[in-house]
Amino acid sequence: MKREGWQGWDSYADFYDWENAQTLDRQDVRFWKRMAQRTNGRVLELGCGTGRVTVPVARSGARIVGVDRSAEMLARARRKLGRFKTRRRPSLIRSDIRALPFRTSVRFDLVMAPYGILQSLVRESDLVATLASVARVLSKDGIFGVDLVPDLPVWKEYRNQVRFRGQRRGGKSRITLIESVRQDPHRRLTIFDQRFVETRGSRRASHQFSLVFRTLSVPQMTRRLENAGFRITAVLGDYEGGPWDPRADVWLILAQRA
Q1: Per-residue pLDDT at 24
Q2: Residue 232, Cα to own-chain centre: how many angstroms?
Q3: How far is the first Cα of the chain from the last one, in angstroms, to the nearest whole number?
Q4: DSSP strand pairing (251-257 vs 230-236)
Q5: Mean pLDDT by 10 residues, the chain (258 residues)
Q6: Backbone angles phi, psi at 97, to 5 degrees
Q7: Nearest to 204 by CA among 212, 213, 195
Q8: Are 176 and 165 spatial neighbours (Cβ–Cβ below 8 Å)?
């Protein structure tokens, strides 16, 4: 059975922030805050999820709209917004990024595609539709930022490895992530089979699902952006503006409408 890139994310919603708290020492949030302040206009985030990027960008004063297909992810983002005060309350919209739900008069000065969101589009037609949709809503001098997961092509396969253990926020339960990784070279896909085991007292529950990402290099993505009518303005290898090379820890492309 062919996997769709959007499958698994509703199930992942309950564990997404917990796992990111274990893994993310990256500086992408700071980078997107700086980009929003630099553009000083309307911001759109593709695949905003639980608001990991949306909320801090909104707290910095940006006028931001977040779009995501997952109702479960958006529900957590809304609860998160309730815990934080923002100068401008962001709009959260449930929609498909392949067909953004904005009138032709609506334009954004920055469109953010944070860490790997475009790689969850597993078919070429999905990516083509998304890039066309972004081009339609990006302002004339606006910036489209694309952040790719750099190590998907060389991610080692393994089965049933314990990746993380830790307490859930509030300390009421303990979570263990057991993960397997499969590569599908023919379709250029990396599949993460995840099992989250949650223990609370004597009760134990297991939550199992898969996430799939498409392998795309920087040259491959830049060609697709150019074919969609974008002009590449920068390719970065870190979140401080350093130059890119294939061994860089960050693969970040900035583009404008040609």
Answers
A1: 59
A2: 20
A3: 39
A4: antiparallel
A5: 73 91 77 94 96 92 95 94 79 96 92 95 96 97 96 90 87 91 93 95 93 93 98 96 92 96
A6: -70, -15
A7: 195
A8: yes
- Contact call for residues 89 and 58 (beta carbons, < 8 A): yes
> Would you state the pLDDT for residue 149?
92
Tokens coding 75: 């529900």
Contact 108, 100 (CB under 8 A): no
Which pLDDT score, from 0 to 100, does residue 168 have? 82
Tokens standing for residue 35? 């980009």
Give dist(CA 68, CA 101) in Å, integer: 11
Question: What is the Cα–Cα distance from 253 to 58, expressed in whole angstroms?
Answer: 22
Task: Give me the pLDDT at residue 25, please.
Answer: 56
Structure tokens at 115: 């860490």
pLDDT of residue 27: 80
Burial 148-180 (b: 16+ CB within 10 A, else e): bbbebeebeeeeeeeebeeebeeeebebbbbbe
Q: Rounded to whole angstroms, how far apart are CA atoms 100 and 134?
A: 8
Q: Please give, one letter per residue, the 3-state secondary structure of 130-183.
A: HHHHHHHHEEEEEEEEEEECCCHHHCCCEEEEEEEEEECCCCCCEEEEEEEEEE
Give the span between the Cα atoms of 186 and 39, in whole angstroms: 40
CA 225/CA 132 separation, integer angstroms: 9
**Residue 82 to residue 79: CA distance in whole angstroms:** 5
At residue 88, the pLDDT reads 77
How many Cα atoms are found within 13 Å in the side-chain-facing hemisphere of 62? 30
Residue 22, classed as helix, strand or coil, is: helix
Written as six digits, the tokens of 25 are 């020492």
